[in-house]
Design goal:
It is a single chain. It is built from five helices and nine strands. By secondary structure, it is an alpha+beta fold. Strand 2 and strand 3 form a beta hairpin.
Length: 166
């Protein structure tokens, strides 16, 4: 199914990678959900996927039919069910994901700060901006250098203290 680049997205980030088996089960579950997702009795043009064995992404083309509060609540309930079945946390907003070479890793805010102080994360490190709102933003501004992300505002003083003066 094709959906608009303006489609709304929700990103749920796991605090650990899903096993191959978990990713397969979650993918089947979210795809089944997206295929049946409705708002006020109208079927939503929706897609779902698991990326990098760590992120669950739901997408709704609101140009065709908008998601309602009740329909969004149903998706949240699905994520809570996935949390219970897998033992992961999908709602921890202090869980920060970044790339370490080819690997996607995550840690809490204090650990992220320590990695910056140790020079293991810098302004060029790719981070995941889970605040993106549309499919277009997901494609263009989800994996971005730390210096271009909201993370830079939060950790700016630390990053700037690690940048050599000219």
């Amino acid at each position: 199914m094709e959906i608009s680049k303006k489609s709304r997205v929700w990103i749920y980030q796991s605090n650990r990678p899903f096993s191959a088996q978990e990713a397969q089960i979650i993918t089947a579950s979210v795809n089944a959900f997206a295929g049946e997702w409705q708002a006020h009795g109208s079927k939503l043009a929706a897609k779902a996927e698991v990326r990098y064995h760590r992120f669950i992404i739901l997408m709704v083309d609101e140009e065709q039919a908008g998601a309602s509060g009740c329909s969004i609540d149903k998706s949240v309930n699905l994520m809570k069910q996935i949390e219970q079945e897998t033992g992961v946390s999908l709602f921890d907003r202090f869980n920060i994901a970044y790339r370490d070479e080819a690997d996607v890793k995550s840690c809490n805010r204090d650990e992220f700060e320590a990695l910056i102080k140790a020079g293991k994360i810098n302004e060029g490190t790719l981070v995941f901006n889970n605040l993106v709102q549309t499919l277009e933003e997901l494609d263009e501004n989800w994996e971005i250098p730390l210096r271009n992300s909201w993370h830079a505002k939060v950790f700016g003083d630390l990053i700037n203290s690690k940048t050599p003066s000219i």
